[in-house]
Design goal:
- By secondary structure, the chain is α/β, with parallel strands linked by helices.
- The protein has a single domain, classed as Rossmann fold (3-Layer(aba) Sandwich), CATH 3.40.50.1820.
- About 35% of the residues lie in helices and about 15% in strands.
- The strands form 2 sheets. The protein has a 6-stranded parallel beta sheet with strand order 2-1-3-4-7-8, sandwiched between helices. The protein has a two-stranded antiparallel ribbon with strand order 5-6.
- Helix 1 crosses helix 12.
- The radius of gyration is 19 Å and the shape is globular.
- This is AB hydrolase-1 domain-containing protein.
- It comes from Streptomyces malaysiensis.
Amino acid sequence: MSAKSPRTPLNDSGPQPSGTVFVLVHGAWHASWQWAPTQRALARLGAAALAVDLPGHGFGAPLPSGTHLPGQPGYATEKSALAGVTLEECAGAVIAALRSVRRYPKVALVSHSAGGAPASLAAERAPELVDELIHLSSFVPAGRPRFADYLASPEQTATVRGQGLMLGDPEAIGAFRINPFSADPEYVEELRLTYYHDVPAESFARWYHALSPDLPLAVPTTPIALTRERWGRIPRTFIRCAEDWACTPALQDLMIAEADAVMPDHPFTVRPLPGSHSPFAARPEELAAALIGDR
């Protein structure tokens, strides 16, 4: 029997990867798993992608102690295990992911929804790690420093859905809490219509039960100070979801306009996408094509 040839370890002195790598940052209550269909679509188009789990998210996310007990005792009042998670910690997870793929010729940082907060802070802290910012219906803190500032704007509150989905007092809990284990069909349907309205109910059930209950309070409420010399020097794209009932088209337009006004060096390139707040579930092939764009 002949001996097998030893496998050559991969290191920085070996062949360098080519093309763009997409670093994907999830939104509230989601995790790296949300991007799997989009990653497959990107791979079919010849693009690499790395999805990030922010602290406290993913399949190891903590649950309130009464989650699986009859009647879910204390579910709406129990202090979140994520109450102490900071936005700096979340940005740190993004920076670590960016560093791990910096050997690619180009790194595109993609954020969805509330993920725009840690992604933006990461880009401000380490602009040398990012060649392009892509916001998928996500928070842009250039005009206003907190996501909460935009969520309270008339552009959002006039037509947004899902205002009854949050449970308890976020300040007391230390998190914005939903119930992905609710047995109330009206609650489940309202969550679907708010975030996934173009995903059939039978398919949505799979996505729904994978959600985490808590978004750390710090993510939408911590101010972010962006500078023209750092964040503002990075070319940026906004993928605008035309029928988004969670982050309304009017709010998306407001964030784009205010960012371009204060950071004029690289105004947003806007790419339209039909459908809901969750194109990664409803139309991953179209989303992958929008991410790649003209590159």
